[in-house]
User: Fold this.
Amino acid sequence: MIIYVIDIGTSSMRGILFKQDATILMKKQLTHTPEYFSNGYVEQDPIILKQELISLCSSLAEYCDAHNLTPDAIVLTSQRSSVIPLKDGEPLMPAIMWQDKRTLSYKESLKHLNSVIFSKSGSTVNPVFSACKMAWIHENLPDIYDKCDMLSVIPEYLIYAMTGNKVLDYSYGSRSQLMNIRTNEWDSELLDIFQIDQRKLSDLIPPASICGTLTKDFASLCNLKEGIPVITAGGDQQCAALGLGVLQDGDFEITTGTGAFILACCKQIPDDIQEDVIFSTSSIPNQYLLESSILTCCSAFNWFKRTFYSECEKNDFHLINAELEHCKNTSILALPYFQGRATPDWNSNSLATFHNISLSSTRGDFAHALLEGICYEINCNIKTLKKYLKSVKHIKLCGGLTNCSIFPQLEADILQMPISIYKNEEATALGAFIQAMMSLGFTSNYSDAFQITRKNDFIKQYVPNPDSSEFYLKKQEDFEALYHKLYPITKNLKESSFNL
Assistant:
């Protein structure tokens, strides 16, 4: 079995070719940068994404020709909530990216409907999710809305380019606020609330489904054979959870990407679910994920590195790591809300803050404080998720911030829980590979598929230092107190329960 995984991220697109035992045969990464505007808009040129897709598939063809291989399938996993209106598969405007803030007004104008929206979609009105973006296009760009025949997220756009089929799997649907997470169907009441015509939406299918096969036209662009199956693996965070073994109740994972995502496996919807979490459809059939999110993680740290360590190359962390190693127990507090706060209270008005600065503060102190702040925010969200789970069995960590030498140990110390990191950090791609194994019938059991995928991997565990617990507990309290002093209304977050 030869599987080509395409992983579509916010700042890059990667193609990874796997053998049957999950050995990587080849890998290629192409970078792209969304455009960030001062008014809060964040956009990406969809044509660049399609060109990258063709380039990656062309590289696949070159490798397979040189090694006399034939791929059994191409499987896609992607960022989940960016929106592109299409006409006959062609973009009518730039993608409105998931971090975009132009939809903030809907949080206020629709808040009286939060009860029904949350009970059906698993989240309160959320400017990150795709429904608000589609509603904004309808309201502000009616000509584009009327002209488009498909309101798509990025994986839909690329799957259509490859197969000509209009399909979307449940994991992306559960990030739209238009799909009922209990029925996995577009919900007429939610469509009415956001004023979206269902005819502009794709057919919903389960993750791990074969979406179609490569068309003659697309195959010829890449020098691939027509008819190769294309599989939808599910959203990138759902696949990361799968690739990290989040399979049973109480399994946790933390992905530190452009934003940070904390996901926990949940076999059924808790009776006491409240508005302080997101409830999403898992990549695994008949399972759910409790999810919390932090809007800026690596993006915040990369901004700091780019701005204050300009002498370092883009992927060179040696200098900043060296300075971080010498910054112990600094007094600076950092609130990492460069794009606002997501869960637990969706405070889009919050901003990044550095507090307790003195003339002796160094750039290393600031960097350390920023990493601490991200850890404290992760801890706030994990404490929220714990309310709905009987126990926390494992916490796995992956993503770009593991390039910071101190970050995993810092996370363990602040959470006061062991943190595990796999040597093979391709969690999202491995989750997509597992989905291909299931889709093609290589195995019928997710646990077996995970064991095959991680068979020869090495796990490094970071154990919390008990001597640091008191220091970080006090600083966590100071972090939360500072946030509530700056944004006091969020302290009174409504705690309504819903029977989902």
Summary: Confidence is low (pLDDT under 50) at residues 491-500. The CA atoms of residues 59 and 454 lie 26 Å apart.
